[in-house]
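Service request form, structural biology core

Requester: graduate student, group of Dr. S.
Request type: structure prediction, single chain
Budget code: on file
Notes: please return the result as structure tokens.

Sequence provided:
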Amino acid sequence: MIGAARRLALRVLLALLLLLAGPGLALLGAGRATADWRTASRAPMGIAPKPADAPQPIVQVYGARTFGWRGAFGVHTWIAIKPRDAKDWTTYEIIGWRALRMGDGLAVTRGQPDRRWFGAEPELYAHLEGDGVDGVIARIEAAVEAYPHRRDYTLWPGPNSNTFTASIAREVPELRLDLPSTAIGKDWLGATRFADAAPSGTGFQLSLWGLLGLTLATEEGIELNLAGLNFGIDLLGLAVKLPGIGRIGAAEDPRR
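Core staff response, request fulfilled:
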């Protein structure tokens, strides 16, 4: 059943990707499509405060276009925490090559979390700080440890890096995380789970193996998942969401 659904969805996906290839590749840019990952910049962008300047506990969620041609259609996401009076940030993310080669895709790194993702500028999706965030950080750490798909990685439809971020966000609704339509994999709920809270925690979603689904939530608005690609309308935020392109309309403020 799952195999047949994936084959049908793949045909739909290929057709949609052909339609989106033009604007997607224009967004990516020819230079990035041919760049060398070994020399691509990983420099921080100055979005995240330095720990010495911010003793309060902070949580941030970032995303950036993936490397190479895949960046025309999707982003890679990660979660960063800085406990109260911590000397450094800690970043959690799932990386495909680690899962495939090392058997565990979870990467835990120290340092500023707002670094370029192999040349691509990161975008801040969520920011939480101040009183009560110590408890949120403890729950994030517990959710990371309990994440069940660290050894599984499938670029499409999931589980992948965006599946991980969405899963952690469901455990921390205070983040009100609205992942973009380009976060392919965020709607993958598992082989036997077909309903859950939306990643923002402000509504719910239905999903058949990340291939067909519907999300209704205050933060996300209305989103339709077709073959792993997201089409949506954010009625409160006055924006539309398109696969490969992302959000068009009023920008959201993750620090609200």
